[in-house]
Every structure is written in C-alpha cells, then in structure tokens.
Design a protein that fits this description.
- It is a single chain.
- By secondary structure, the protein is of the alpha/beta class.
- It folds into 2 domains: about 130 residues, Alpha-Beta Complex (Aspartate Aminotransferase, domain 1), CATH 3.90.1150.10; about 230 residues, Type I PLP-dependent aspartate aminotransferase-like (Major domain) (Aspartate Aminotransferase, domain 2, 3-Layer(aba) Sandwich), CATH 3.40.640.
- It has 12 helices and 17 strands.
- The strands form 4 sheets. A 7-stranded mixed sheet has the order 4-12-11-10-7-5-6, with helices on both faces. Strands 1-2-3-15 form a 4-stranded mixed sheet.
- A hairpin with a 2-residue loop joins strand 13 and strand 14.
- The longest helix has 24 residues.
- The chain is globular, with a radius of gyration of 21 Å.
- The mean pLDDT is about 95.
- The protein binds pyridoxal-5'-phosphate.
C-alpha cells in the first residue's frame, strides 16, 4: 500500500547520497548519473559553491513577497538576459514559465491562437499541457484550453499557412527533449522565426531542458541565430532548487502591468541565491567551451562504437543532450534497466530513444565509462534479438 498517487513509474531504487556525477542508493551501490535528475543537476550533486550559498541563505531571510523590492531578482534577471534587452518574471517550474509565456503572448497581441509542434513537450498544467503536442499527455483531460494547434516539427510546407495574423505565438523547443531528443533544423528554425515575427506573432522558445548550458551555450537558441521574443527556463537554473523564469523582450514589459500575473513563491530567495551562482559558474566562456569539447568527445565515441550496430538507427542531439535512436522500441526499457543494474542511469525519450543528460561537469573518464557500458549493452541486446 502506498500513500502516493501511482502517476510515476518508479524504479525500485532509493537514492540516499551522492557527489558530483555519482548517486548512491540505500544499499550502498554507486550509479554514474547520465540523467542529471532529468536535466536539473547540471553542476552535479553537492556542488561546493551552490551548497555554500544555499547554507548562507538559509541563515538569512527565506521568503519576502513580491510586494517589495528585490535586488537579487533584478540581478538574476539581468544574468538571464545575457547582455540583451529582456525582462524577467520568476516562477517555480518549467510549466509555470510556459503558462506565463502563453498569457503574455495573448495579452500582448490580443490574439488567441497558440501554435506548437507534434511531439513537443511544454509541461502538465492546463495551458502548458494544451501547448504539448502529444495526445497521450492530453488523454482524459478534455476539454483542453481552446485555440491551441499543432503542426509538424522540422516540416517546411505547413507552417507558412498555419502561422498567420491571427496567431498569438509559436512555442518551440530547439531540441525536442521528451519527444525524442530531436534537434530543430537550423535553416528551418530561422525561416520559422522570420515568418512568425513577420506576421506579428511572438516567437516563444522553450529552453526548459535545453537552457542553462546544456547544449554548450547559455541558451540553445544562441546557436540558431535567432532572437526569440520570449524564452522560458527552469530545470538547470536551480540545480535542484525549484525555480523557473520567463524572459521577454523589454518592449513587452508593460503587458504584465501590476496585478496582471504573479505567484507567491516566484523569485524566492533560497531559489534565486542558488540560481545566481549557477549562472555565474555556467555562463563562462571556458565552461561552455568545455561542454562543447565534451559534446564532441561523447558523440565521437558513440559514433565509433555504434556505427555498425543494426539496433541503433541514429545518434543525435547537441551539447550534452544526446539521443540514441533504437530500431526496436521494445528493447528500450530493457536497455535502461540493464544499464541501471550495471550502475549507469539513463533516460527514455519518445518511444524509442535512449536519452543521455549527464551533468555538464562530467569527466572524460566518466564519459568513456558510460559509453563502454552503453555499447556493451546495445551489442548484447542486438545479438539476443538476432538469435530470436
Ligand atoms: C521542454 C520542456 N518544457 C517544459 C517542461 C516542464 O517543466 P516542469 O516539469 O518543471 O514543469 C519540461 C519538463 O520536462 C520540458 O522538458
């Protein structure tokens, strides 16, 4: 008997400790973490600077409502604006950040239609779920919020007709994470951005999974040569302390006038004291270049080791967000549980993608260790499938 809803399928492991890129369960077994808590612990576990700053903040004020000034919020919003003219709104999760973006887009444009993409994922609250282009996630929750439409991702022909003068915003991930680690085509995305902005709709980039250094730049859109009207972040921003944010071009600041939107905990000092340091650490040229170096190293090892595999269709992604696409989706669950047995934590994405989201602090040796376990496991699975 459990006192919890069974809404998560949980592995039978309880983690009790860890450090850097390793987690330890209640039996003392160690696991190399290639999940980062689903893209959250980008700086690993027990990061000394983050632990220190949170301890220090615990001894100070925890919460002051948004009825009063906050220099800390100003400072973190400025860091998230990353040298550009954007204003920020703080909340507590990715879904909430996307809710804020949807509300802003409707109020700013006076239009209602929101366009997003097949296989997208934007969260589980009503607006964010309505923006999520996956039927399985909508199941049982009708009616959804009206006027949300879904169009094919990376598809050239449909969007010029679908996105029009009646569209409030287009919400898009630079790499569809939950949908299967599927990167947006760079030319397609640029054309989509130009078209969206030309018809007066807001381009909303969901950086909840791709942001905060995950792809080797502070935000993935920086590698796409576009300027979103709005972008949303969460996950890695607090490295485990719940925090989300929506950033919008400065010209949209007056749209959220006093009383128009808000949340009690948004911009909470415990969360923002950590977010402030996360940004200081990650948004450094050397740190981001290092993520790129690790990207090349990890992808090269995977390409070399898997290039003759019949089971692997494709290795794709960007930065330290990697998808290994399996030809046989029935083997994905087994691959993840076998790897877990061998002490490596990985994730599922879409129906047939083995997803890797290691902390950005992962070492070369740990990359080698994980890749050799993955190659070994996929080779065994391929051979067993072949024998059948
Ligand atoms: C791209 C994207 N957007 C939004 C969300 C929702 O974030 P949260 O679970 O913090 O509400 C997620 C979570 O996986 C995500 O990957």
């Amino acid at each position: 008997m459990s006192f919890l809803f069974p809404n998560y399928s949980r592995a039978n492991i309880e983690f009790v400790d860890g450090a850097n890129q390793t987690l330890i369960d209640d039996q003392g077994k160690e696991y190399l973490d290639f999940t980062s808590g689903i893209g959250v612990a980008n700086l690993g576990y027990y990061h000394p600077v983050l632990t220190k700053v949170l301890h220090e903040q615990v001894d100070k004020l925890w919460h002051i409502p948004n009825l009063y000034e906050s220099k800390l919020q100003e400072q973190v919003a400025e860091k998230l604006a990353n040298g550009k003219d954007y204003v920020g709104f703080f909340c507590n999760s990715g879904a909430e950040a996307n809710e804020a973006a949807i509300k802003l887009a409707r109020k700013a444009t006076g239009r209602t239609e929101i366009i997003s993409f097949h296989q997208s994922f934007h969260g589980r609250t009503y607006g964010a779920m309505s923006a999520t282009g996956q039927e399985s996630i909508h199941e049982g929750f009708d009616p959804l919020v009206p006027d949300f439409k879904y169009i094919p991702f990376n598809e050239w022909d449909i969007f010029p007709e679908a996105i029009t003068e009646t569209t409030a915003c287009v919400m898009v991930e630079m790499i569809q994470g939950e949908g299967g680690v599927l990167p947006a085509n760079k030319k397609w995305l640029k054309y989509l951005a130009e078209h969206t902005q030309k018809v007066g709709a807001l381009l909303v980039v969901d950086e909840v999974q791709t942001g905060i250094g995950r792809t080797g730049s502070l935000f993935a859109f920086e590698q796409y040569d576009i300027e979103p009207d709005v972008y949303t972040v969460a996950k890695g921003l607090g490295n485990g302390v719940p925090v989300g944010a929506m950033l919008a071009k400065g010209e949209y600041a007056p749209v959220f006038s006093p009383g128009s939107h808000g949340t009690t905990f948004g911009g909470n000092r415990l969360a923002l004291s950590v977010a402030d340091k996360v940004l200081d650490i990650i948004n450094q040229k050397a740190f981001l270049e290092d993520v790129k170096k690790k990207e090349y190293y990890l992808f090269n090892l995977l390409y070399k080791g898997l290039r003759n595999s019949q089971l692997v269709q494709e290795v794709r992604g960007m930065g330290l967000m990697v998808g290994i696409v399996l030809a046989d989706e029935t083997l994905l669950g087994k691959a993840i549980s076998d790897l877990q047995e061998k002490g490596l934590l990985t994730l599922k994405a879409g129906k047939n993608v083995l997803r890797l989201l290691p902390p950005l602090t992962i070492t070369k040796q740990e990359i080698e260790q994980a890749v050799s376990l993955i190659i070994e496991e996929l080779t065994i699975l391929e051979e067993t499938a072949w024998e059948k």
